[in-house]
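re: ur question from yesterday

yeah so i grabbed the chain u mentioned. its 325 aa long if i counted rite. heres the sequnce exactly as i have it in my notes:
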Amino acid sequence: MKPYIFITRKLPEETILELTEKFDVKMWEQEDFPAPREVLLAEAKKASGIITMLSDKVDEELLSAGENLKVIANLAVGFDNIDLKAATERGIIVTNTPDVLTETTADLTFALLMATARRIVEAADYIKAGKWEGWSPYLLAGHDVYGKTIGIVGMGKIGEAVARRAKGFGMEILYHNRSRKPEAEKETGAVYRSFEDLVSTADYVVSLAPLTDETRHLFTADVFAKMKKSAIFINAGRGPVVDEQALYHALQKKEIAAAGLDVFEKEPIPTNHPLLELPNVTAIPHIGSASTDTRTAMIKLCCTNVKAVLTGDSPKSIVNKAVLQ
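ran it thru and got these structure tokens back, copy pasting raw so excuse formatting
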């Protein structure tokens, strides 16, 4: 009997051939909507492997239901949706998709920065609404990017890629990270700063920090109050690192100039969310790695990891290496 694999979204058949040729594979039929909790639990009871998304909660309940589970492959770099400790205790390998999305996510992050700074979405809506009746000197005037100071919080591979783009725009690059990055400093001219110094100095504060106990609600009312009134906040990392109520008040009170957000505390964000009411917020639906080439590469990496585990080989990108010890 072939091992059974469940995939929590509908993916193109050609991207999962590596699995369908060797295993019994079932996909949830909705491409854009998650499988209900009861479906996930029922499938976990049968599956040897599951390919999950960031919005899928892989907790103690689900893992304990998966008596045959050997591998969880998360279609993302992040994995805070998975109880890593519980998975490791059960000998279940957890994998993610690093590296293949670095440059694509950096592209999106810098695009979001520029769109927010230059009010691109607001301007597009303005002209589509038929409001453009003439030219005036400060019509939809935004903020310069070239030559300004960017502060990157979370200098992982994506942060380094954003720094390379910022260098091309002649920006002064500051960064804060758990550890210094000498090679990135040499390549981009980035300067390490304390978190407090960075947020008070940068014209653009870009959060690419992972979600941990230490970074949850890292950006509070006090932090936003320390930023320049002209500062623009960009979050393309993890939503819960931001206290969204504090961000809303900072924007509403004009303590900071604007925000560009690809991620949110709870996703999908409801249409009546207060942040969406503000004209100085550019909000997009967690599409950091959403290019066709990159998403295909991510899917294929998940498939390669699942196949490796179920055939007794080592996966390419394991998160909980302790499970192999």
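noticed a couple things. The mean pLDDT is 97. also The chain has two domains: 4-100+292-324, 102-283.
anyway ttyl
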